[in-house]
Amino acid sequence: MATPIIETPRSGRVAPGYSRTTSSRSNFEMVAWLFMRISGAILVVLIFVHLYVNLVAGDGISGIDFGFVAGKWASPFWQIWDLTMLWLAMLHGTNGIRVIINDYADKNSTRMWLKGVLYTATLVIVVLGTLVIFTFDPCPVIDGVAHVADYCPTP
Prior knowledge:
By secondary structure, the chain is mainly alpha-helical. The protein has one domain: 3 helical TM bundles of succinate and fumarate reductases (Up-down Bundle), CATH 1.20.1300.10. The protein has 4 helices and 2 strands, in the order ααααββ. The chain has a two-stranded antiparallel sheet. α1 crosses α3 and α3 (about 75-105) runs antiparallel to α4 (about 110-135). It starts with about 25 loop residues before the first helix and ends in a 9-residue tail after the last strand.
């Protein structure tokens, strides 16, 4: 009985200009792989502490409101904590999606467009998230009128 020949998966679908077997002069993929492992471990700690502080140590989900966030972001420690969580999560996710795009997009032009959209979305979210964290004002003055809530100091 003859043994059937099994082709290498996706052997006919990989674009000729995209070779997975050639070695690269840089070690970018190794650094990206290492970043995923380190950032994943750090994110686990950041997220579980975040969840504990927000849900267990406080009043639970009912205690999270605008005032809770305002009080939390009044501390530079929590601003840096949340900023680190944002940046690591976005870079970790972007790197993961980049790998998926490299694996499944057959044409170079498709890969280029998908990565362009991915990197643009990542940049926009990271910039906007950073701006929100550092410019958040819980006691705004709109048109010369102070909108004072019970957690804002009286003028």
